[in-house]
């Protein structure tokens, strides 16, 4: 058998190689998984505050390596140092956020029901699932990378993590892994808390591995659904939390259109952010034809004159073929700019289409992963509700309403919220705020588990499972489930919160 | 096209027909689903306390029809009037439980994060999924039937329900549906809140229907997994909450064996309950060989001399072939009793096998749906941990420990709890107590969604999905999500509970 060729990351600005990685072979994967399994009892047995301490040590280590990480990430992704400095700041904050959420213990959802004459005592608590496979994203080397939301929330919840490194930024991935492993070891976390594998085949073998308990993925529909299908073919099926690219809709009400200049300006900033490589990028705007939004967006885009350089050659090619597909589906090109630079340059574009063309199954409702937006004009607001019903599930949507009362906003909001995980009023979906109440996930096909979130306090709950203990004595229970509550976990007793 | 033959329920004691039902055709299913869709805005728009009022009206109606329902159910299931009286009492209590849980509002998991200089305000709340298809069980005509846990918790959560009636008790199903529909209408619930379909094809068409949002199923592995696969083939995949039969293990520690007489007595009561037709039936007992448990169970079984009559001919045949398959897998028959009565009579049996034979993939780990139990004796307690690792996921397990400290119990509990949704100490898994902290669900293949429960407060959470509202003004939000909290829902604000 010939050994698999190495994986290679590239500098998108030149197309030249930056980093190579040897694909992880079956024996090495088995050893990595065996270490993860060995770490399970410790990770699930320590108080969540102890895991929080480990995670803060990881956050410290990332912060200490900031300049080197940003330099490397910019070389491998061309996302720009300003954006990457911000993303690193955010990633450090994320790791600390999940650490603190773990320590706070709400994710355990501990609940006791006291025995009475009729029923025995019952205690229910969330226990960690076991080793989690994390498939990071290409477009966020830090925030959704080796130490991104999925890894941090899985570790916080008490699960060892094995990361499949994204081939677009192998150098950053290895650097993050190395510093996290050292920091974890120094903080006292067991060997096997965090592992890494490289290569397409190793990713498949990871999902198929008998000891893997769950998969988290951020990326394209094709990638996420392939992993979901693979997991569904296992003898023991495991959950796949895939968060996938979608066309995030923006709806401007007739009253909201009074601010059409502000909408045009904000939209261009939002859809060109990170060269349009955001899963939360607004992709389709429903706006009154009278506001002439497409023309205004084109003016603003021409003024900004972005020169997108994409993460990979494939993504750059996808932008070109995507714009073509939108035109084939009935959209008219209002403006297309750039795409003729060096390396993996791609155009930015705005297109326009009559609202009536926006129908379920149309290519107009498929994501173009790049700085491309479609404006669908409506003549009469009565048309909009029917179109909202045609939209597929998406991660997030925006509603631009008038100030004060807005009857259209009230009518459209239930339809819009039934299609997404998050609705933003008078703002933009790119940049999902890191707050407890965040919901980053939405109906199929934006995720494979519409109740799950990749960001926010409930991200931890993806990686735990409730277990009930009936008729137990405290001394036989694990500490987390004891009535004496040695870890001071928030707890409901007979329906009432005690802390 | 020839019309499909009618479905027929039978009297298990004689094998004679009791009730027939005409299969629901495609046009009728479409009309039923259209009514459910029409009910969605009302069900999701009213305060949960209003839905609670409707459900209490349903509970009242069931209670008022008690004698007729029990008579009909005994005719169609042969479960006996004492058991069915108890099951009806429990079912009325369940409907009221989910009503009260809905009104209490914890399932909404409402959470606000206040805007600060860095982040916008964010509100997250659980919204109902939409129409739910419920496939009830044969073995619990009330508790897991037309108005069972799934229906009651889905309605409580704000989802219309379309039930696929179980062919084993069509008469009870139609009676329950009729009285619930009347009660719902009289209480002011919209038409379409509850629907019913009959027939195998209608069940498939229901799962495939574009407007169905989720499926709940209670029954066999083959049935549940078939629906799960069907849902996974939809253009828009929907969650299937299938709760399926498994071999629920009982583990007796060396110290627990001091009470071997009590174990034998309780085990026989538990595994013969409802003629062994419980998804929580203990199916495999790991006990010290010295205690001679199989012989004691055989003695107790002989004394009790049960005469099982099964729900269907197929189940009765399955008991016979199941006992044969256990013997082929290496188990020795200690005692087999009965099975030669009228109608769908089947034997009760206890078998014995050395612990070493209990290995992953063995037929010994497949459920026999009937009054059949396998005792696996261990010579040394050091053998047990390896066997626990071989067990497949199950709904529930029992641990019989010694009084006070029990080192084996402490060592085995983590392994046991990693395999099940509920662990019972010194008691039996049959009869899952109706308490908030109940977890009736476990790892694959006992359920298709190991985080879900069919019983308990969290049963409602299967049928909702979180939505986040970012930067909203109160007046644009649905009442449930408003800061002013008009429904007085339990709420976390900036991480702290306010009620």
UniProtKB/TrEMBL annotation, chains A, B:
Domain Aldehyde dehydrogenase: 10-434
A Pfam family of this chain: Aldedh
One Gene Ontology molecular-function label: oxidoreductase activity, acting on the aldehyde or oxo group of donors, NAD or NADP as acceptor
Keywords: Oxidoreductase
InterPro entries associated with the record: Ald_DH/histidinol_DH (IPR016161), Ald_DH_C (IPR016163), Ald_DH_N (IPR016162), Aldehyde_DH_dom (IPR015590), Aldehyde_DH_Superfamily (IPR050740)
Residue segments, region Disordered: 1-24
Protein name as annotated: Aldehyde dehydrogenase
């Amino acid at each position: 058998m010939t050994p698999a060729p190495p994986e290679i990351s590239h500098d998108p600005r030149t197309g030249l190689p930056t980093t190579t990685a040897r694909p992880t072979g079956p024996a090495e994967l088995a050893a990595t998984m065996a270490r993860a399994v060995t770490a399970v009892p410790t990770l699930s047995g320590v108080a969540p505050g102890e895991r929080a301490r480990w995670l803060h040590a990881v956050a410290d280590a990332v912060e200490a390596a900031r300049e080197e990480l940003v330099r490397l990430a910019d070389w491998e992704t061309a996302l720009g140092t300003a954006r990457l400095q911000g993303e690193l700041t955010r990633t450090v904050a994320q790791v600390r956020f999940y650490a603190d959420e773990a320590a706070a213990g709400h994710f355990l959802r501990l609940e006791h029901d006291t025995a009475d004459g009729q029923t025995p005592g019952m205690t229910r608590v969330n226990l960690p699932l076991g080793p989690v496979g994390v498939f990071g994203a290409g477009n966020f080397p830090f925030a959704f990378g080796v130490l991104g939301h999925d890894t941090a929330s899985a570790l916080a919840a008490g699960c060892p993590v094995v990361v499949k490194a994204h081939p677009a930024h192998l150098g950053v991935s290895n650097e993050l892994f190395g510093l996290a492993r050292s920091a974890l070891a120094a903080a006292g976390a067991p060997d096997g808390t965090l592992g890494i594998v490289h290569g397409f085949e190793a990713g498949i073998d990871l999902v198929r591995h008998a000891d893997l308990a769950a998969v988290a993925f951020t990326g394209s529909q094709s990638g996420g659904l392939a992993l979901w299908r693979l997991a569904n073919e296992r003898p023991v099926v495991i959950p796949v939390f895939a968060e996938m690219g979608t066309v995030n809709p923006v709806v401007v009400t007739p009253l909201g259109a009074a601010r059409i200049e502000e909408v045009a300006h904000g939209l261009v900033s939002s859809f060109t952010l990170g060269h349009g490589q955001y899963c939360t990028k607004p992709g389709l705007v429903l706006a009154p034809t009278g506001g002439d939004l497409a023309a205004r967006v084109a003016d603003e885009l021409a003024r900004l004159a972005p020169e997108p350089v994409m993460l990979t050659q494939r993504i750059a090619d996808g932008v070109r073929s995507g714009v073509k597909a939108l035109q084939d589906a009935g959209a008219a090109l209002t403006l297309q700019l750039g795409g003729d630079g060096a390396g993996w340059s791609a155009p930015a574009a705005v297109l326009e289409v009559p609202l009536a063309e926006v129908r379920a199954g149309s290519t107009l409702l498929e994501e173009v992963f790049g700085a491309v937006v479609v404006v669908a004009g409506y003549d009469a607001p009565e048309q909009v509700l029917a179109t909202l019903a045609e939209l597929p599930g998406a991660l997030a949507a925006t509603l631009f309403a008038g100030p004060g009362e807005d009857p259209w906003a009230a009518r459209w909001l239930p339809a819009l919220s039934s299609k997404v995980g998050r609705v933003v009023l008078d703002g933009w979906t790119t940049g999902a705020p890191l707050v407890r109440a965040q919901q980053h996930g939405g109906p199929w096909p934006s995720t494979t588990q519409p109740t799950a979130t990749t960001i926010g306090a409930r991200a931890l709950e993806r990686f735990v499972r409730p277990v009930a203990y009936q008729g137990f004595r405290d001394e036989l229970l694990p500490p987390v489930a004891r009535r004496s509550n040695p870890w001071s976990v928030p707890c409901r007793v007979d329906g009432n919160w005690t802390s």
